[in-house]
Specification:
The protein is α/β, with parallel strands linked by helices. About 30% of the residues lie in helices and about 30% in strands. α1 runs parallel beside α3. The longest helix has 19 residues.
Length: about 280
Amino acid sequence: MPRQLCVAAVQLRSGRDPARNLPEVEALIRDAAGSGATYVQTPEMTNIVERDRAAMQERLAAEAQDPFVIRGAELARELGITLHYGSLAIRRDDGRVANRAYVFGPGGDMLARYDKIHMFDVDLPYGESWRESATYTPGESAILVEAAGTRIGLAICYDLRFPQLFRAYGHAGAEIIGAPAAFTRQTGEAHWHVLQRARAIENGCFMLSAAQGGRHEDGRDTYGHSLVVGPWGKVIAEADHTDPGVVIADIDLDEVELARARIPALENERRFTLAE
């Protein structure tokens, strides 16, 4: 019997004020659940998009007091869904910030948290410059969570460019890997689709990646195009725009086993040395 799962990617255009963002996020999560999704994912920086570090710090809360964390548990319980916040900006005890994903089960319990490992420190053409390491403390552990009747690997945005993380999830039996993001418009136009499809093909798994999209209050432009990609690399569902909304897809988890049997790359992988 097929192992069907209805999944949703919530696309956002988060602003500078978490208090204003929360009801908008909640409404879209409710839309997703009302459309039948039992696993709902939101993008990176669901609670706030703010490039001014001092201004962001003033609006953040510690995990125990964060309204998104509190409400996320309540929503998951009320709607009977697995809710995956792609990430929230969370104030740490040391005064820095965690870029942290959360997964809540349908009972409202927190199943997993994951801190983004790879920091986006780069100077882009046309004058854009980003130094995530100046604000965020990187994570040190990959997290695989049993949720929604499957195994889900957690990643965030820039992690997508580091295939070894996704390979580790593939070897650990992940059937879905999430890479929710706030990709810049420039890098998204060039690389978003090809990287998502490559990670799915390499590991014979579904990729589900909710995204931020459009011109934000702080002036940044994000690419949108939230995606669901199948284990054979086919785009199953996509928001082909930058506006807030919900992408729904019914996926058959048995396709993971079929894809891995057709191309057994995980089994065929060998260790090697590099001769210089």
